[in-house]
Amino acid sequence: MSWKKFLGGVLAASMIFSASTFCSAAEESANAKLVRIEIDTYGAEQSGAILDRISALEKSFSGQNMSGNMNARIEAIYDTLYNNSAGPAILAKINALEWNVNHEVASGGINMRLSVLEDQIFGKMNEGTFNERIRALAKASYGEEILPIAQVQVPANILIKVETTAPVGSKVMQEGDVIPIRVISDVFVDDSLVFARGLPGEGVVTSVRRAKNIFSNGKIEIDFCRLQTIDGQTAQIFTGIEAQDEMNANEMARGLSLIGQTFSGKNKSLEEIFVRGKNIDLPAGIELYVQIKTPIVVYGVRTTGNAVLVAEPVTPVEPVTPVSQPAQVESGLRDDELGTLPQESEVVRTAPPSEVEPLPAEDKNLDGYDGEMIEIVDED
Questions:
Q1: Selected residue with higher pLDDT from 270 and 98
Q2: Distance CA 293, CA 229 (A)
Q3: Rg (CA), the chain
Q4: Residues 6+ apart with CB under 8 A from 300
Q5: Would residue 63 be called left, alpha or beta, if left means φ above 0 and alpha means ψ between -120 and 50 degrees?
Q6: How far apart are CA 248 and CA 244, in angstroms?
Q7: pLDDT tens digits, residue range 163-200?
Q8: Nearest by Cα to 147 from 189, 202, 93
Q9: What are the backbone dihedrals phi and psi of residue 289, each rounded to the nearest 5 degrees, phi first?
């Protein structure tokens, strides 16, 4: 085993250990569950009496108020939205519908997400409960009311490409700050979609060091620990050896900087952009890889044939029958009515395609940004 692999393993182990402090799953209270339901349903926490808020949610989900105490009613709505134990929950179905229509999962409350889908497909918003509206969308989108969703096991360490959706800076961030991320490439297992473009996740800042002088670099370490699956579950993720190797192979220096690592590739042009004595100050949109921490069973969306669907199928061209003698013009005109051929200058000729690869855009460095300097910590 190489020293690089050994030290990387030690680092990954320490990162997983730190995750137990910053990114451990905690049991949600009834009120926390209610707020989470409202955010995912309406896009924001609602105001007013708790019982009134519960009643409004019940009308949207089932069309009628349920019996039982306050906690039991919240739990019932929570299970309808998130719990896949008895089959795909509402969040799983909406994610599947959105991906089938747009090949991307949207953010925001499901009420608005359903309205957008209905406007795209029907040209207007439908009435009824969420389940009724979902069935109508499934019928129009997939051809049947039952969505093609089936359970599939996602193995540990499968790689997922994500990006940050907020700026990251060591000058202003503190331990415990949440860094939102989203999936930017679909992930399939056995021809089933398990992570779709647009699904949200997050990391937590575990360590921050601000730059003081030329010998003191800014440093920030983020534990990317949670990611939503296509069926709405929360998958535990981390940036282990496989993810770091993939980022190195793809020269994703900025992504490595978010976990306190220095790019170790052979491209000197990238290494020259590392500077000392500066704080890390990165915009949103930094790409990196994460990997699944433990296997998880997901209701994946079954795809037809290949994993990647063709948006615009190519129409086959009829073969041309070779002509062994000069072809005669069949125009329906007499010989004396036929026009003359265009002059040489009027003939349009198609030039052969160029085999020269296009040059990169001007003013772009190898990391895709306009000549800006970034900082990645070199612990040595």
A1: 98
A2: 13
A3: 28
A4: 149, 150, 151, 152, 188, 189, 190, 192, 193, 194, 230, 231
A5: left
A6: 6
A7: 999 998 767 778 999 999 999 999 999 999 999 999 99
A8: 93
A9: -110, 145
Residue 217: per-residue pLDDT: 65
Alpha carbons 306 and 336: distance in angstroms, whole number:
56
Gap between the Cα atoms of 198 and 230, Å rounded: 10
Both structure tokens of 45: 């926490």
**At CA 247, angle to CA 307 and CA 294, rounded to 5?**
65
Q: What residue has token string 């003191």?
A: 216
Phi, psi (5° rounding) for residue 163? -145, 155
Lowest mean pLDDT among 63-72, 148-157, 161-170, 303-312: 303-312
Q: Which two tokens stand for residue 374?
A: 């970034």
pLDDT digits 0-9 by tens, 293-336: 999 999 999 986 433 332 333 333 444 444 444 444 444 444 44
Q: Locate tokens 């590392």: which residue?
A: 274
Domains and CATH numbers, the chain: 24-147 (no CATH), 152-302 (2.40.128.260)
Residue 93 one-letter amino acid:
K
Host H or E run for residue 90: helix 90-102
244 closest CA partner among 19, 17, 20, 12: 12
